[in-house]
Design goal:
About 10% of the residues are buried. The chain is elongated, with a radius of gyration of 29 Å. A 5-stranded antiparallel beta sheet has the order 1-2-3-4-5, with helices on one face. The protein has one domain: minor pseudopilin epsh fold (3-Layer(bab) Sandwich), CATH 3.55.40. With about 160 residues, it is an alpha+beta fold. Helices cover about 35% and strands about 25% of the residues.
Length: about 160
């Protein structure tokens, strides 16, 4: 009398596992690329949203903002710069301090940069002159036009 075979042999299970492993190794890199492209797209949309709200922020805060390069490019100054000592007499009037530039209310994700060809000024009345900026992330560069009067981004 012959017994019925129940279950799978070890060899059959190993073949199925090898095939499954090969399929996973082929599909996983594509999922990583898709995730990365979605993340970059989301971050770009978030930056464009922040840029479109700068006019409102200038109006709300009653401040003037200037967009040139963000994050700002740090100037490298020589360390051994000679110091000038000025002796002030009582008759001299001290010079007026220069107005401080307000920091832009932007937060960029790591690796992103904004470069403006000409400064874009956001006035306290909520109007801006518009202009061209370049939004860059790693090797990707996107030209964006900020349309006056409210600097709405146009990709």
């Amino acid at each position: 009398m012959m017994l019925k075979q129940q279950g799978f042999t070890l060899l059959e299970l190993l073949v199925v596992l090898v095939i499954f492993g090969l399929l996973v190794s082929l599909v996983t890199p594509n999922f990583i690329k898709i995730y990365e492209s979605l993340r970059v797209s989301y971050e770009k949309d978030e930056i464009l949203s922040q840029l479109s709200s700068l006019s409102y922020y200038a109006f709300h805060q009653h401040k003037t903002f200037e967009l040139t390069n963000f994050p700002p490019i740090k100037e490298v100054k020589p360390k051994d710069e000679p110091k000038l000592i000025v002796i002030q007499t009582e008759e001299e009037v001290p010079p007026k301090p220069e107005p401080t530039k307000e920091a832009l209310p932007l937060t960029l994700p790591e690796g992103w940069q904004i470069r403006a060809k000409q400064p874009i000024i956001f006035y306290p009345n909520g109007i801006c002159r518009g202009g061209q900026i370049e939004l860059s992330y790693k090797t990707q560069k996107m030209a964006i036009e900020l349309l006056p009067p409210f600097c709405k981004p146009k990709v």
